[in-house]
Amino acid sequence: MISSFFGKTKPINYIILLTLIFLFYWLVNLLLFNRPFDIEQLPIQILALGSLLFGYFVLNFIVQRNKVSGQNSFPLLFFTLLLIVFYETLGDNNALFCNFFLLLALRRLISIRSLKNIRPKVFDATFWILISSFFYDWALLFLILVFMAIYIYEPKNIKNWLVPFTAIFTISIISYAILVVMRQEDTIFQHYRFAFSFDKDYLMQWHNSAKLVLYVVGIFITGLWTFLKSSNTSTGKVATMRIIAITFMIGLVLDILKSSSSVFPIIVTFFPASVFLTRYVEGIKRPNLRELFLMLAILFPLIGFFIELLLR
Q1: Is residue 212 within 8 Å of 203, Cβ to Cβ?
Q2: Cα–Cα nearest to 269, from 255, 256, 279
Q3: Which parts of 182-234 fold into alpha helices (H)?
Q4: Which of 241, 230, 232 is nearest to 113 (CA)?
Q5: Which of 112, 116, 172, 282 is the most buried (most CB within 10 A)?
Q6: DSSP string computed for 223-238
Q7: How far is Cα 145 from Cα 260, in angstroms, rounded to an integer?
Q8: pTM of the model
Q9: Rg of the chain on CA atoms, in Å
């Protein structure tokens, strides 16, 4: 029943998932984080929630337009379940904004597979990554992804390699000019400090470390399985999966560099993780096993969340 429902791309699927996340966002912020209703912070929260919800449409566009998976809603389902597992990220507005702009960058990078308008796509991707770095300075690591995409798709054209530097120069000049007008030119130097803020005390808590270890191991297994199954597919799809795998690894590095009791950038790994989980589910041939896997994938996050809710 679950596989047949989410195995399609009907509007009701999006309505259910978006409504669930909308309610879940306010539940986490008001009950778990005990944040009072502040009219001054409300616009920022609405923008953060809006970026999260609109990110679903960007994610779906990437998956369906580039045929990363089949015509189903599994990527959206797994993205939602990961948000429930790592619900702390919903309290970090910077994480939500950063993830949204990185999704926009990935949309352009993955579309390079068509080998059309490569340079504008590289420029746009670099632009969105730079915007995402306004929320996490270490998000600049995703510029590695831009150069990897050039290397994978069209490395022989030297002009492609120069485009990211053009974008960096352009955005830097515009940003600095705006800050000068606002008389806050020191802000950019205060933001990009690239400090290592790894909080070992946070990960020493067993439930936090257990979730992270199980998550990383599970995604690495499904990712490896995906690559083994993709060996007989087209070169374009293999290249796309490489981009997605690199995205996951850079996201993990970002999470290690920035994770603490108040910062949760792990959401930037949810898109590649959702893709790997979807490809794994699509590869399960027996309907009963697929249904069982989806049932457990839904029950475990919900049970874990409500247990933590009761313990608080």
Answers
A1: yes
A2: 255
A3: 187-191, 200-204, 206-229
A4: 241
A5: 112
A6: HHHHHHHGGGS-HHHH
A7: 25
A8: 0.93
A9: 20
DSSP 89: G
Rounded to whole angstroms, how far apart are CA atoms 301 and 307? Answer: 10
Cα–Cα distance between 209 and 303 in angstroms, integer? 18
In 3D space, the residue among 74, 116, 90 whose CA is nearest the CA of residue 275 turns out to be: 74
3-state secondary structure 117-174: CHHHHHHHHHHHHHHHCCCCHHHHHHHHHHHHHHHHHCCCCHHHHHHHHHHHHHHHHH
Domain ranges of the chain: 2-114+197-311
Q: How far is C-alpha 221 from the geometric centre of its chain's CA atoms?
A: 19
CA distance 285 to 133: 41
Residue range 45-89, pLDDT digits in tens: 999 999 999 999 999 999 988 888 888 889 999 999 999 999 989
**What confidence tens digit (pLDDT) does each residue in 196-248 have?**
766 666 666 666 778 888 999 999 999 998 888 776 666 667 888 999 999 99
The one-letter code for the residue type at 115 is: L
CA atoms within 13 A on the CB side of 112: 29
Cβ–Cβ under 8 Å, residues 303 and 13: no
Candidates 55, 102, 79, 101; CA nearest to 219 is 79
DSSP letters along 273-293, please? HHHHHHHHHHH--SHHHHHHH
- Answer left, alpha or beta for residue 194, where phi above 0 means left and psi between -120 and 50 means alpha: left
- Cα–Cα nearest to 275, from 9, 5, 16, 64: 64
Measured at the CA of 179, the angle between CA 174 and CA 180, to 5 degrees, comes to 95
Which residues fall within 8 angstroms of residue 190, CB to CB, at 6 or more apart?
none
State how far the Cα of 57 lies from the Cα of 36, in Å rounded to an integer. Answer: 30
Compute the distance between CA of residue 137 and CA of residue 252 in angstroms, rounded to an integer: 15
